[in-house]
Amino acid sequence: MTTWGEVESVAPELAAAVRACFERGKHKTMATLRADGSPRISGTETEFAGGELTLGMMPGSVKLADVRRDPRIALHSPSVDPPEDPSAWPGEAKVAGRLVAVGQPGAEGAAFVLDVTEVVHTSIAASGQALVIASWRPGGQVRRVERA
Predict the structure, then answer these.
(1) Spatial distance between the Cα atoms of 104 and 8, rounded to a whole number of angstroms
(2) Which residues pair with 145 in a beta bridge?
(3) Are 27 and 78 in contact (CB under 8 A)?
(4) Which of these, 122, 71, 138, 78, lies nearest to 98 by C-alpha position?
(5) Rounded distance, CA 15 to CA 51, Å?
(6) CATH code where residue 140 lies
(7) Both ends of the chain: CA-CA distance in Å?
(8) How many domains, in total, are found in the chain?
(9) What is the pLDDT of residues 97-132, one digit of tens each?
(10) Stated pTM of the model
(11) Domain containing 88: what range?
(12) Computed from CA positions of residues 66, 92, 112, 118, in that sequence, does the dihedral angle turn out positive or negative?
């Protein structure tokens, strides 16, 4: 299992940028897989605590049923529109992985930590002329791609 603390250890600049994007607002978007394999997006709240990226779900929610069937998810940070100067945009972040249940089985709701499989931060280059995509996967190095 790859914890958020491990991401911070091996890719500190990327982890800081991603965390800043996630912490700029309360509501994030989570993608899960329905029983038929099609995607479902839902709102969720996350927290970075004790080296973990955590989240919870209400009992009986469809996203909880999705996760119990297939724990793979993707999370997207709150979005903000780019300012007049596109290079000043703080970007957006995505994190993917598998949810691992924590706490008491059968307790009200469900709490999870994320086993991280991918971290991505997208921003605008200082020139304002290119999209910069920084990504990381366990066992790899941070990869940066610029697209004009």
Answers:
(1) 28
(2) 133
(3) yes
(4) 71
(5) 11
(6) 2.30.110.10
(7) 35
(8) 1
(9) 999 999 765 556 689 999 999 999 999 998 889 999
(10) 0.93
(11) 4-147
(12) positive
